[in-house]
Amino acid sequence: MKRLAPLLATVGLIATSVPLLTAPQAAAAQTPGYMRQQPDWHRCSPEQPVTYECATLKVPLDYQRPEGRMLDLAISRIKTENPGKRRGVLLFNPGGPGASGLFRPVDLSTRMPKDVRDQYDLIGFDPRGVGKSSPISCGGLSEAERGLGGPYRPETFPLDVAWARSVADKCREKSGDVIPHITTRNTARDLDVIRAALGERKISYLSYSYGTYLGAVYSQMFPQRTDRFVLDSGVDPQRVWRGMIQVWATEAEPAFARWTRWAAERSDRYGLGTTPEAVSATFWDLVARADRDPINQDGQKVTGDYLRSEPSLFFSPYGASAVIKYLKSLAENGPKPADGDAPDLKQLLAGARASGANVSEPNAAVPGAAAADSGGDGMAVYWSVVCGDTDAWPRDPDQYARDAARDKAKYPLYGDFASNIKPCAFWQRPVEPATPMKTRADVLTVQNEWDSQTPLVSGQGLHKALKGSRMVLALGGEKHGVYLSDPASCADVTVNKYLATGRLPAADVTCQDPPPFP
Fold this sequence. Notes:
The chain is α/β, with parallel strands linked by helices and 518 residues long. 40% of the residues lie in helices and 13% in strands. It has 18 helices and twelve strands. The strands form two sheets. A ten-stranded mixed β-sheet has the order 1-2-3-5-4-6-7-10-11-12, with helices on both faces. The longest helix has 24 residues, at 242-265.
């Protein structure tokens, strides 16, 4: 033991000479560099308000290899004008996938009530692959390759397969090294990088459409970082993503039935039939006629497939009635007389969009283009997320043919469009599984009753999946997007109270919106 004494003394001397790290220092030493960034804020543009600031962060392309390639992540902010009432940050995502959110704080800052606005720095961002966040591309898709796919017919199905394969091949050729990592789970990780860069312990979040699924995934991956979350116009996690396209077909049928009743009650104005059955017959006769002989409208050819490819039109009875009345007149009487006061199809479709429909112009080579950003980058991100989030897409083209034939019979408006083959049949396998919804999430979901893009059953599915959530349902609401989208929306009061106080309603809330067109 005497021989060990000098050695023990030496060890003790060394141990006491090494400085000990504090708990925060130790945690920082183990924190990846991308989680310790400080934004270099600058004015976004001379044309924009001076309060609107931008910065760029770096995030890993692959979070499993954080020392590898990095992507740009463009963020923006407008700080609260009342720092004494500041609670934290409110991030915003407008939907998509494939939509930019960088400019949104400017819009939000003018529309939020002051007692809500004062509590937050408003934060926008372009999701990975979008806009200024290392945008990806499929190499410039042709007009015929854009959109979500066409109707099913056995004789043209080989062309549908070729379309889907071509889109997948072009995306893989142009951005194949990045596409596997453009997923909702990685975007949720990016949100947490933004949180850390802003120095916040938690984030609050306002989102629409696809953004609700992103928020739901974040709440499961980072539950301790989730503060006040508003998920508006919900995506059902159980339906991602093929089921979210197919739900447009299943829910278009009750919307169509509602429209036939509405138009029949106003037969003196629209002349489409005095009973719901007669209105339905008028529409399907017009579809058959337009398929035989496309309706000519100022050089545009309106086919029966086009009429079926726009199921969202029927979620807005006013818009649908005006459009169908106009096209029926064209089919029966030829081009409209030269009358500067008479609306044309473009104006009528614009009116339908204003009332909530998500319709595209005729002659889109692949119908359904309005359902996603038609730009090349937007479609690249759309397919990357929709195909890369889940491995539930069939890989056998014949399965799509069987499903489309079945659903065309069950859901004649849009069933074959929804179930026909998509590029996901030829996409690379996902790098990780979809996120299970198992963790309690005290968030607020918001829904319009007649939303065409995320129908009511989808919003209810999101609410059901997130245990602890509350739902605000606006009966009669027709738009895609509830909060701040219509000054008359009955849902805004509840959302504002939640964002201002953090207190969820004691129970789900159902309120009644006024008719959009008295």
